[in-house]
Specification:
This protein has 396 residues and is an alpha/beta fold. The protein folds into 2 domains: 217 residues, Glycogen Phosphorylase B (Rossmann fold); 161 residues, 3-Layer(aba) Sandwich (Rossmann fold), CATH 3.40.50. The protein has 15 helices and 16 strands. The strands form 3 sheets. The chain has an 8-stranded mixed sheet, with helices on both faces. A 6-stranded parallel sheet has the order 13-12-11-14-15-16, sandwiched between helices.
């Protein structure tokens, strides 16, 4: 049997300028194709900016993303699409589809006659992919990952477009049961949505020499780590405020984003500068070192689909404290994995951190807990869905 050929379509995909952007989509795809039963070419559009002029701020860096690149043996096209201020959210899917079409046609002409489109993130990516699928007569699989379902459908026009697209998709995947329920709340049948959780690369994320890493990072006392884009919903500010009730604790913050200046100002106003370190963006393949150095990861986000940082930390032997929202309870399910906060406040975060440190699990036990979350089950589930879709298409 020949391999199934897929076109992976998503604006959430790493590139030479943003190596950590959408790393979870790349990781799932890498593990899927590693067995040889699936081949894929990636179309990962980026917003159009003419230059790195100061006028565009950090967005201007996107002008430097290569049009074509190869990562881990996968061919990636980065077509540009226009982003229109103010009305951009409502028209994003059609612009994304129209400006990606030429790249997809080129892929077909080059000899890669793909069987289906595998789209990641429902809006605008999944909506655009369904339109492209209809135009190209290809089935489309759409994966919901987080804010595309737990936030964006609150907007009137995107909600209509999302419902229209999902009804026409050949399959719907959610990365957590919580997201599946949110999709069914949009008037879809529960059985129409398949949950395929994200996994963790156990060969990349494993415990490092903890004493050595802590010496290199000059860490002595209890150490927390908060990882994620520096935006409001990630809750880094709650973890910072929790330090007021946690004397001698040090907090490492990994990530970049628009809230950095505000978070640094908060640290200064609380007189915590000696106990909070902003490490900036760190390459994904270097993160195991920092997870291993910490005593606990704290994720205080308000919304999550399936946060990979929790499993990555556990795979390095580091337990977690997480807000009790969306997909988090589906990951943190035993004392070996960590604890969930009773409520999403700095006080609750501090109390939960103290409770965890009062009875820290053995790091080997935390690692064993993470080992049940390999990518194998997810890859098998994807392959089964693709096979079922193609058989159904062949019988029509």
């Amino acid at each position: 049997m020949r391999p199934i050929k897929t076109l992976t379509f998503s604006t959430l995909y790493p590139n030479a300028i943003q190596p950590n952007h959408g790393i979870f989509v790349e990781n799932r795809l890498r593990h899927l194709v590693s067995a040889g039963s699936v081949q894929s070419v990636v179309v990962a559009p980026v917003p159009y900016f003419p230059s790195r002029a100061p006028l565009f701020g950090r967005w201007g860096q996107l002008s430097q993303v290569p049009r074509h690149e190869t990562r881990y043996g996968l061919t990636i096209q980065h077509p540009r699409y226009p982003v229109i201020p103010k009305v951009g959210t409502s028209v994003a899917p059609i612009l994304l589809a129209l400006w990606s079409l030429a790249s997809i046609r080129h892929i077909e002409r080059s000899g890669f006659d793909f069987d289906l489109i595998d789209a990641h993130y429902v809006y605008p990516d999944g909506v655009a992919a369904v339109w492209l699928g209809q135009l190209l007569s290809k089935p489309v699989v759409v994966t919901a990952r987080g804010t595309d379902i737990n936030l964006i459908p609150r907007l009137k026009i995107p909600r209509k477009l999302i419902k229209h697209a999902l009804r026409r998709a050949s399959a719907i995947i959610a990365v957590s049961e919580a997201l599946k329920q949110a999709i069914t709340d949009l008037d879809f049948r529960h059985e129409d949505v398949t949950v395929l959780r994200n996994g963790v690369d156990l060969g990349k994320f494993f415990p490092r020499d903890r004493a050595k890493v802590r010496r290199e990072l000059q860490l002595n006392g209890p150490t927390l780590i908060s990882v994620g884009h520096l935006i409001e919903r990630k809750g880094h500010d709650l973890v910072i405020r929790a330090l007021r009730e946690l004397p001698n604790y040090v907090l490492l913050i990994v990530g970049e984003g628009p809230e950095r200046a505000g978070l640094q100002s908060l640290v200064g106003s609380l007189d915590l500068s000696s106990r909070v370190r902003f490490l900036g963006g760190i390459a994904h393949d270097q993160m195991a070192r920092y997870y291993s150095a910490a005593d606990a990861l704290v994720l205080a986000s308000s919304r999550e689909g399936w946060p990979n940082v929790l499993l990555e930390s556990m795979a390095c032997g580091t337990p977690v404290v997480a807000s009790n929202v969306w997909g988090n309870p589906e990951i943190v399910k035993s004392s070996d994995s960590g604890l969930l906060m009773n409520e999403r406040t700095s006080e609750a975060a501090a109390q939960t951190i103290r409770s965890l440190f009062d009875n820290l699990p053995q790091r080997a036990a935390t690692r064993r807990y993470a080992e049940q979350f390999s990518w194998d089950e997810t890859s098998r589930g994807q392959f089964d869905i693709f096979t079922r879709i193609l058989r159904r298409s062949a019988s029509l």
